[in-house]
Amino acid sequence: MAKYVLWINLFLLVTTGFAQTSKIQKKDVEGAAKIFDLNFTSNEIDTLLSDVQDNLTIYQEQHRVHLPNSVPLSLWQTVLLPGVSVNKNQHPIAWTQAHGIELPSRKSALAFYTIPQLAELIKTKKISSVQLTQFYIDRIKKYGDTLQCLISLTESLALEQAKQADEEIAHGNYRGILHGIPYGLKDLFAVKGTKTTWGAAPYKEQMIEEDAFVYQQLRQAGAVLVAKFTLGALAMGDYWYGGRTKNPWNLALGSSGSSAGSASATVAGLVPFAIGTETWGSIVSPSTACGALGLRPTFGRVSRTGAMALSYSLDKIGPICRNAEDAAIVFNAIRGTDGLDLSATEAAFNYSNQLNIKKLKIGYAKNYFDKLKDSTANEWKVIQVLQQAGATIVPVVFPEKQFYPFQMMDIIIGAECAAQFDELTRFNVDDELTMQRKGDWPNQFRTARFIPAVEYINAQRHRYLLMQQVNYLFKDFDVIISPSLFSGNQLAITNLTGHPVVSVPNGFDKKTNKPTSISFLGNLFDEATILALAKLYQDVTPWDKMHPELFK
Predict the structure, then answer these.
(1) Which of 247, 356, 474, 547 makes the best surface tag, with the fewest CB within 10 Å?
(2) Which of 214, 233, 241 is nearest to 225 (CA)?
(3) Looking at 282, 303, 487, 519, which residue is catalytic?
(4) C-alpha angle with apex 482: 505 to 269, nearest 5 degrees?
(5) What is the pLDDT of residues 410-451, one digit of tens each?
(6) 481 and 281 Cβ atoms separated by less than 8 Å
(7) For this structure, is 258 an active site residue?
(8) Strand, helix or coil for residue 119
(9) pTM
């Protein structure tokens, strides 16, 4: 990274003189006005021309000052609108106990044990953390190349942490249910002494000597970092500088992204869980494609310090697991703030594995369900299962046409992401990125340079109205059920409003045999309810107990 910054500074010194001689002409303004949906008279352009030229000088002066990715905005996004309350009264959580659990006769089956099961084996000393860690390291070595899901195997660090866990437990210092449990991180989280590549060729040797907040939280819980997994380059898709991350159910398919490796590795049993991030679908989409359970928490529930910033007003951190209670355990460990991410908020997480479904107010997004072409689709079956379990579920129209009348997400995410990787575009370093299609970052970053500041700001004002209306909708519901993908703009809307969602495996597509999922949407800061409902659903269905044959 240091060489990259030095190269940019040298480039600036060489090109500054040339850039300043480039004058904006009247015809340039006339062309730009068309791009921005403006209509100026000839006289108006004559009047503003010198000011536009002056602005260019300011831009050029600004460009001489390098901005690291870690520098945030001075404007902080928050979900704490008027009327939104935050409960900070935390109650003790009683996790499901796995008393009497034994090591499996077929060792490979251990790969798919739940966190409570693994914790019980460690706590009762039927397996040590070092042994368990070595087991998962061996699986990563065996299958990592097959899935193309691995960037860094943190073997020495993992064995050191596992040894420490065993010593602490032997001396009666048991930190809790994650103590000694291995896991993986999406490789956009900084960990001292490891590469943090962001999945992108320009950064594949990057070292950031910082420990991300989420890593610190898991370290405090006693969890053991065994790997840093792939992400689509700069958090888009499943193509990274080393290839394409594979779907463990069908190696001819990609895992989707951008939390590509985290989902693929978890479903294949290379780790009990992994951490992902989402800006616009990067937890939900790979979780759906790979058959994982993904939790995208309320915006601001987990501090993003030490994580690559893609979009400061949209980025979120959450766990990717195989079942709901595992996700609740991991989320409980990583939630919170260090005071450095000013969008992050402390709030209680009062999860219970005992849910009275008859008391829940549940709706289903009728306008999205009606778009499903198949009346026997897996999404409809979820409603039937929950009704059989005692739920009353009523139709509700998700506020798309009235409060999402245009794709404000494209404007907001476009401008913010392009700003984060401004130098990549200006100095053509984006040519080094693996994928160069129309929908990939290089072209998207270039396109976003033509978003006027006024339109970006007004899109954020429309977003404020959207946040109010979705909050108003949820006042009558504990959970709203929605198809996860491809049935409208729910994913864009809830990412903009910051509402939490858990994506839950619900079967396989009849035609393609690919995994499918359902999404349970919750009120702000109420991950507990959607996870409890997800657990109830998984308790009465087989999908979380099914694993890809190749990795058994």
Answers:
(1) 356
(2) 214
(3) 282
(4) 15
(5) 999 999 999 999 999 999 999 999 999 999 999 999 999 999
(6) no
(7) yes
(8) helix
(9) 0.94
